[in-house]
Amino acid sequence: MDGSRRRLLRLSGGLGLLGLAGGVAGCGFRPVYGTGGSDGGADAAEDLAATQVGIIADREGQILHNLLLDRFNPRGRPTEPRHSLSTAVSIAISELGTQIDETTTRSQVTVSATSTLNAFGEAHSFRSRIVATFSTTESEYASSVAEQDAIKRAMVVIADDIRLQVATFFERQRLLQS
After folding, report:
1. Strands of 83-171, DSSP E
2. Which of these, 30, 31, 96, 169, could form a disulfide with 106 (CB 3.0-4.6 Å)?
3. What is residue 168's three-state secondary structure?
4. Mean local confidence (pLDDT), 66-82
């Protein structure tokens, strides 16, 4: 291929990407975690930061509470919260793989969370559920550590999912108000 054809292909590829970017911008696409709405008002990230995250019972609840604080209030707890989020967590552990002598080799942990967001004068519910697996051994300590690690990994996914659901809710509310 000669040099002029290569330049033409590069130019047409670049124009195609530019056209694609322009098409996405023209259709009303807005990132959920953007800064400053196009209408000059607050955005979902500001609403998240103005949300007070309630205490969650038990050790696993404390882990989820801290993860939610990191995701909702990265600059510290709000001094004048406009919204509040309360969450309940349930954890179920079941055995999956067993050997002939009935010892377990694989287990799974199911973590479910139900959150209630009090915002705009109403209560809104969000649910999240994740299943994580872990290996078990004859060593109780190793099995316990593996179980706790699986729970912590599940909590990270739950926290991310709750944040995404709540941010999407805030963005929808903003679109409905405009």
Report:
1. 83-98, 104-119, 122-135
2. 96
3. helix
4. 90
Write out the two tokens for 43: 């955005």
The pLDDT tens digits for 35-54 are 444 444 457 888 999 999 99
Helix axes 58-72, 140-177, angle to 10 degrees: 40
The total number of residues written for the chain in this structure: 178
The CA distance from 139 to 115, in Å, is 36
| Residue 165: closest CA among 108, 137, 120, 126 | 126
pLDDT, position 53? 95
Could you please report the per-residue DSSP string of 16-82?
HHHHHHHHHHHTT---TT-SS-TTSS--HHHHHHTEEEPP-SHHHHHHHHHHHHHHH-TT---SS-S
For 64-99, b/e burial (b = at least 16 CB within 10 A) is: bbebbeebbbeeeebeeeebebebebebeeeeeeee
Query: Average pLDDT of 105-127?
Result: 93
Residue 110 burial by CB count (10 A; 0-12/13-18/19+): exposed, middle or buried? middle
Say yes or no to pLDDT of 177 above 70: yes
pTM of the model: 0.73
